[in-house]
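Researcher: Quick one. two chains, 835 residues in total.
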Amino acid sequence: MELGSSILENISVAGDAAHISDKAFISLVQAACQGVLLEEHRNAVAENPAFKDTDKAILKEAYSGLVTLILEAAKHDSSEQNISSVLEDCKFTTDRISSFAKEFLPQKPHVQLLLGKISSSFPHIVDVDWRLDYYIKNNHLEKVNSAVYLISLKTEVPGSNDIQEVQFSCSLEQLQDLVGKLKDATKCMEKLTQG
Amino acid sequence: MEEVDRIIVHSLRSIGCDIEEDVQSLRQFSTELIVATVARCLKVISSDLELPSSLPPGMSARFRVGASLANHVQDLGYKGGDLGYQTFLYSNETEIRKIFMFLVEKLPKESSQTADEPLGASVLLHRAICTELSNQLSASWTPTFMKDRGIRSRSKPPGWQREGACCLQYYHSCPTRTPVGTANLSIKLPRETRSYYTSKLPYVTNQTRVHRDTAPSVLEANTLEVAVQQEWETEWNSVGLASRLTQQEFKRRKRERLLKLIRDRLQQDSQRQERGTGPSALNDLQQVMTSIEAQGKSGLSKTKGSRFAHTEKLQYAKDEEKTMAQMGTAAPQDTEEEQERKRQDEVDGLREELHKVTSDLEKLDLEVRKFTASQQQMDEVIMTEEKSAEEKKAAYTVKKRTLDLLPEAEANIGKLQAVVDSSAQRLVTLAKQWESHREPLIQQYRELRQLHSQRESEAEKKLEEIKVFRARMKESADEARRKEELQKQLVSEFERMTKDVNRSAYTRKILEIVANIKKQKQEIDKILVDTKSVQKEINSLSGKLDRTFTETDELVFKDAKRDESVKKAYRLLAALHENFESLIHTVEDTGVVTREIRDLEEQIESESSKKILSNLEKISEDLQQMKKENSGLIAKVKGK
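Model:
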C-alpha cells in the first residue's frame, strides 16, 4: 500500500490528539466508512454533532486522509498488521490504531464489494432457455429433416438492471462446438486456481 | 523402523506415487507397488529415463523390467549388496527398505531450492488470486434472483462475493480537493483560503457529482501523487543532486529548458512547413509560438499569453466578419443597376476623398516627424553650447587668479612652492597610511579566499557524503523491502505447507534416538571394560596357576628323588594338571560353540525374514509359467 506524502500528512492530522479528540476520532472513522459506502451518508460527517468543537478545515483534512486510507487498504486487502505499520508511521498511538482497526476491519469486505463494482465486462450469462425444433421441409425442398436448436441466453449487461436475451439458432454440431468451448473455458478456470 | 517407513511413504507420496491411504509400512508393499514406486523415483531423479510404471503380464518381460530397474539403481551408486531382478520381483522387507532409503536420499530437494529464491509480490498476488478463485469455484450455482444486486453471501470463508455483471459501473473519476496544511502551524495560510476550507469546501465524499465516482476519484488522486513523487525522486537522485542546485532552482531551470526545446522544435517545424502547407496552419503555429514566448518571458505568463492569443483571435474574427458583411451587401445590389452605379460612383468618390485625406494625413505626419527631429537637434545644440560656456567660465576664473597673483610674483611663487611641498608631503604620508591599511586587508582577503575554497571543498565532500548516504539509504530500504517480501512469502509458504509431517515430532524422535544410541554406546563401553578386566583376571589367574604349578612341581620333584610315595604324588599332580588343562580347554570350546550357536540362530532369523519359502514357491511358479510361455512360443514357431 503506497500513499502520497500529502495523504500521509492528512492521516497524521487525524491521529493527532491535539486536533481531534479520541471520541471524535472513532466517530470520524465511522463517518468515513459510511460516507464511502452509502450515498445517503455521503455528507453525514457535516451533520454529526460529535464534531461540533472541531475546526472544520482540520476536520475536512483528516476526513479526506481517512477516506483515502480506507479505500487504499480495502483495495490492497491489507491486513491489520500492514495498516498498523502505516498508522505507526503517521505517529498514531496504539489505542487509536486498535480503535481504527476495530471500526474499519468489519467494513473492509463491504468496501471491497463497492470497489468490485468498478469494472467493465462482457454480457454475463446467467441462464439459458432452449428449444429443439425438427425442420421437416420448406417450399424449395420436400425433405430437409434436420434438428434445429433455438437457444436464448439470458445475460446481465453492465449498467442495466434488466436481464437481456441473446437469441440464436444452431445445428447439433454447432451446439456441440459451443459446449466444447464452454468446457474448455471451465477447465481453463480450474487450471488457474491450481496455478 | 515404523518411523522410517512412514517417512519413506510420505516422501514417496509427495513425488506423486499412487500409494493408498492405509499403507503405512513397507511390509504392505506388493510387488507391483514396489516396481511402480521405484520406477517413479528413478524418473524423478533423472527425468530422461524410459521406464514402464507398471508390471507387464508376461514373465520374461517382468524379468527384464526387474533387471533394468536394478541396473538403474546401481548406476545411481547403490552399494548395498547384490542387486538384481530378484530384489524387486521377490522382495524382502529389509532390502527394499535399504533401496528406498537410498532412493529417497537421492531425490532432488525441490522444496529447499524454491525457498531460497525470493518470490516477488506478483507471485504472492497470483497465489491470492488462485485461492480466491478456487473459493469462488467451489461455491454452488445460485440463480440470479437469489442474489442482492449481484452480491451473494458465502459461508466458507464467511463473507460476500460479487457475481454477474448487472451492477457494474465504468471507471470514472473527477478531480477532488482536500485542504492542505491547515494543522501545520509553520505554514501561514491566507485567511481567504482558510475561510474557503472552513465554510465552503465540501467533504471528500460529497465532492463528486455522483456518489459512485467517489472511490475512483480518491484512488486516482492518491495514485497520481505517488507516481509524481516517485518520478521526481528518481530524477532528483539521478540528475538533480549532481547539479548542486536547490530543488526550486532545478525545477525552474528544467521548465525553461523544456519551453526552449518546444519553441525550437516549433520554429523548425514551421520553417519546414512553410513550403508545404497553406498560410493558415502557419498562422496557428505562429500563434502558439508567440504565446509560448510570452509564457517564457514572464512568470505570470499563462494568463497574459492566453489573453494575447485571444485578442489576436478576435481580430481575425473581426476581419472575417467584415468580409462576410461585404459579401452580404453585394447580394441585393444585383437587382437595380442604377442604384448600383450610383452607389459605385459614390463609393469611388468617397474612396478618392479617403485617399486624399490619408495622403494629407501622411504628409502631415511626415512634417510632424521632421519637426520633432529638428527640435531634438536644436536641443542637442543648446546643450553643447551650454557646456562650452561653462568650460569657458572655469578657464576665465583660473586666468583671473593667476593675473591677480602677478604683482608680487616672488613671494607668491615661494608660497605656491610651500603649498606644493606640503601637498607632496601629505601625498607621501597618505601613501604610507594606505600601505599600512592595505597590508592587513590583503592578508584578510587572502585568508577569506582560502577559507572560502576550503568551505567549497568541504561542501563538495559533504555532497559526496550525502550521495553515499542516499545510496545507502535506498539500498537498505530496498533490502528491508526485499526481506519483508521474503518474510511474507515464507509465511505464506509455511501456511501452505502440508502439516501432516510433524516436524517437531520427528526432531524429538531423532534426538531421542541419538540419546538412546549414546546410552547404548556407554553400555557397550562398560561391557568392553568388563570383558577386559575379566580377561586380565583370567590372565593373572592362569599366570598364578602356572607359577604355583612349576613351584609345586619343583618341590615335589625334589622330594620324589628321595621318597617313593612322593613320586606317586608327583605323578598324580601331573595328571591333575593335565586334567584341569583339558577342563579349561573344554570350557573355552563350549564358549566358542555357544557363540557359534548364537550366530547361527541370528542367521536363521534373518534368513527366515526373507520369506524364502514363499519366494521359492513364487519362483517355481514363475518358472513353470515361463516354461509354459516358452513351449507356447516354440509351438507357435513350429506352427508357422
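Chain B touches chain A through 55 residues (CB under 8 Å).
Researcher: Thanks, that's what I needed.
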